[in-house]
Every structure is written in C-alpha cells, then in structure tokens.
Write a sequence for this structure.
C-alpha cells in the first residue's frame, strides 16, 4: 500500500480517502489550508484504482494457488506507489482546488506546528498527525511489479485529483 492513497473510490459507501479530505474539511472549518511545518517532506502516493488493481491481482493468485513466486513474510510487502509529492505541493494543490470551488477565500497556506495540526486533524494525537501529514515516505513497488502489476495513473493524475475531491467534499458538507 502507498503511504498516501488518493482519488475517488468506486464503491457504494465511503468513496473518499483519508488525508486529502481531512485537510479539506479542516480548511472549510477554518477558512484556510493548514500545513504541518515546512514543505520538506517527500512522500510517495498511489491512486485507489491502481491499489485496487493490485489487490485484485494478488487475490486472484491466492485463489488460484499461484503462491510459489509470490513473496511473503519480510519480503512480502507490496507497495502500490506511482508518484511522489512534497507536503508543500500537497497543501498548495488542496488550497487551489478549494479556492476554485468556492470553499475558501484564499489560496494562501498557513504553516502550523505539530500541536495545532494534531488538534485540527487527528484529535490531538501528535504521533498520528506527524506520521500521516509530515513524514517522509519512500516506497518502491518492485515486489508488486514482479507479480505483473502495472499502474495506469501518473503524477498528472495526482495533481488533478484535488479538484474532483474538493467537489465531493463540498457536497458531503451540505
């Protein structure tokens, strides 16, 4: 799994991921997008559609009993990352999208410390906040690719997903 899963799910119930909508809901409450610290973090991401494709591929192999060349244990960690971003790009993308849909009045991003960010996003849990909104995540989908997984989304898809997510978040806030 990638550290940041993005996009709109195709299921019947919750179609939103976690990180982007959390920041968007916070911005709708406060009037501006918050960013934890500087924009130094370098984070991997992958779209929910490509992650679903990987899960289907793995499930089919298990059901068919094709386990001999499917690593497990310490070697059986399957990442589905397709691109990378910084926390500064993340916050700016959210601010731009929410501004475009009329959710906030400014594209300005307000940098805050861990305590304030944790209160706003994770109910005061600082470690959870730091791990999900301020850490460096570097993953490689090498093991996933050996199974035949081929992602179809790119960095451009990540950059453009903010607007679609903003529209859905705005609609669920009504």
């Amino acid at each position: 799994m990638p550290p940041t899963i993005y996009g709109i799910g195709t299921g019947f119930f919750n179609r939103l991921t976690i990180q982007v909508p959390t920041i968007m809901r916070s911005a709708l409450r406060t009037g501006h997008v918050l960013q934890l610290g500087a924009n130094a973090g370098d984070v991997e991401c992958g779209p929910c559609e490509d992650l679903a494709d990987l899960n289907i591929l793995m499930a089919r192999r298990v059901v068919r009993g094709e386990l001999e060349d499917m690593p497990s244990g310490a070697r059986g960690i399957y990442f589905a990352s397709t691109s990378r971003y910084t926390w500064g790009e993340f916050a700016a993308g959210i601010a731009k999208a929410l501004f475009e849909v009329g959710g906030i009045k400014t594209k300005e991003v307000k940098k805050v410390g861990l305590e304030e960010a944790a209160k706003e996003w994770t109910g005061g849990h600082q470690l959870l906040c730091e791990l999900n909104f301020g850490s460096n995540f570097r993953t490689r989908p090498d093991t996933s690719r050996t199974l035949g997984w081929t992602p179809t989304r790119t960095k451009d898809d990540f950059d453009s997903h903010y607007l679609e997510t903003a529209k859905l978040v705005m609609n669920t806030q009504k």
Summary: The mean pLDDT is 92.
